[in-house]
């Protein structure tokens, strides 16, 4: 049994997935929040929602109407929202877990104020190029569809990493690759720090445009996440137009690209009698503010300078990064490279040309080329 699967003692699945017959090609499994597509020969299975509360429990339930059987499967759903993008040669599903071999799995983690959708098109491209792989995309706590899931304790890098580890344990998956962008990069490092060691199999971790320690704001004129979070906290919870928010952000000094990215977090609110329907934010901004503070304060140099055996940590710096990479940070990474080789691990530094902080949007071709060797050989 895998180390990550061992991380949580809870063996019950805490999330429902639905399967529908689809044409061959890249498949997609999602949890209760989404429509599901997967390239398999299984009969159609639909997903329905229930707000029914079990007596003595505060767990909202999801019912999966599975036409493979005469009854309904009811499972708890207090986990992160996720999508599982699968290559054409992957037949695995957690419903059939145990009867099929686990395919190589990669976890893709977004940054602050992002969501799993940031990785959607890139993950589908990876799945098409590497059809034996599957890619787990999650909404971190306080973000996207996971914002509606009440999380206990403080909102930190470590707690966000623990959420992902618990989800992996519930799905009984051990990732071979973990890719994290910005805040998600530190989450990836924290996952390695928190799992039992040694790891069950080699794990390649990618930290995209983030350093393990101090977070340094960009130069004057660059977008500053803390200031963005502060400004968003002053806006009403419901707005009538994305365009108005974009213009307000630009007037405040934020770039148009950042403004247009932020409003992807707005969803229509179905209010009876309202025309047009107002828009509301899908994130928990107070929780996100705590997470960003933790991101600035969390120091994970120890895991980089003492990499567990079998783990390979890759840092990728964007050529036009919004964040300042100190020469001392780069020097420490290069020193860790030499030390890790001697101890059976690995540390490596890469630079993505012609890209700003949003590497998967600015230069997806270059990023794809750099990441590709992690998925070869399967």
From TrEMBL:
Asked whether the keyword Hydrolase is assigned, the reply is: yes
On the tree of life, the source organism's domain of life is: Eukaryota
Q: Which InterPro entries match?
A: AB_hydrolase_1, AB_hydrolase_fold, Serine_prot/Carboxylest_S33
Which residue numbers delimit the AB hydrolase-1 domain? 107-368
Q: Does the keyword Signal apply?
A: no
Task: Name the Pfam families on file.
Answer: Abhydrolase_6
Question: For this UniProt entry, which segments traverse the membrane?
Answer: none
What keywords is this UniProt entry annotated with? Hydrolase
UniProt-listed PANTHER family: 2-SUCCINYL-6-HYDROXY-2,4-CYCLOHEXADIENE-1-CARBOXYLATE SYNTHASE, ALPHA_BETA-HYDROLASES SUPERFAMILY PROTEIN
Family of this protein = Belongs to the peptidase S33 family.
Q: What is this protein called?
A: AB hydrolase-1 domain-containing protein
